[in-house]
Amino acid sequence: MAKSNLVVKTNYLNTVLQNLKLSEIRIVQLAIVDARETGTGLSAEIPLRIDAKRYSEVFNTTRQNGYLMMKDAEDTLFNRRFSYFDDEGKLVKSRWLSQVRYLDDEGAIEVVFTPAVVKGITRIDGAEEFFTKYLLEQTAAMDSNYSVRLYELLVQWKQAKKTPVFELEKFRGQLGLESDEYQTMSNFKKRVLELAVEEINEKSDLNISYTQKKKGRRIVGFSFIILEKKKTKEISVQRNSDNGDMFMVEGLSDKQLGRIARNKQFMADYNHLVSSTSPAGQTEQGWEFEMINRLKKDPTQFTKRPIRDYLDC
Question: Using 50, 70 and 90 to split pLDDT, how confident is the model at 201?
Fold first, then answer.
């Protein structure tokens, strides 16, 4: 995978209390990646431009949808704040952005990060124990901001394979929850934690599980076991005398695979592959992301008719 898609953040920034929407998280991710890719780095003075075309390519959506999602994030991202503890243990509050501008006629957004963020994000490799690294591709297909935030929190413990206990209230804040959201433990686990764990296990390079820490009968925190998935090569099924074109996906673009995934007959044939509670079963975009990935990695799951037939029906 390309080094240019490596996101690097200091751990203090990665563990801040924050509440970013998914589209806002993605803008921050792209800013980090593009600052590295262009070699310009991040600055508290110079705007960094992010194009809707770039957004759509990375997150596998249309340019128009990328444009709308970025525009929706513009108003709110400027007002977002986060908190962290400095080297002296003092609580510091900061905004993410000091300036944001949407270039309506160009389908682009310009952002300027605050000094605290610039200090916390680097494009330079080094002192790896102080940095959290992950590939943008690992979170690009995720539909929930909770999943992205949980992945970011856990990936820094990947080498250790387990985390310390995350104290409940701080953990909720790190996932971006307000104090009045999902207050009961059953709702928190069902609507936030378990959905995030499921999506991470489905779509990333990690397999995770959690245990809960109790004080009496009350749950006061969670800890996680983190295992890396074994790397597998993408399957490229060739035409042969036995299967003809049945599983043939070579030569099909992501756009064509998207058309296949959206085909009503395809959806009827394979809707059993995802559960109703899975993020892939919640939105059309989530379904499309999931099916494109499955078609590319293991087309032998799709046996009811030749794959290319769904382009015509």
Answer: very high
Q: 139-198: per-residue pLDDT in tens?
A: 988 989 999 999 999 998 988 999 999 999 999 988 988 888 999 999 999 999 999 999
Q: Top-level CATH class of 141-231?
A: mainly alpha
CB 7 within 8 A of CB 33: yes
- Choose the CATH number for 1-138 among 3.40.50.300, 3.30.2310.20, 3.30.565.10, 1.10.10.10: 1.10.10.10
Q: How far apart are CA 256 and CA 254, in angstroms?
A: 5
This prediction has a pTM of 0.66
In the chain, CATH 1.10.10.10 sits at: 1-138, 141-231
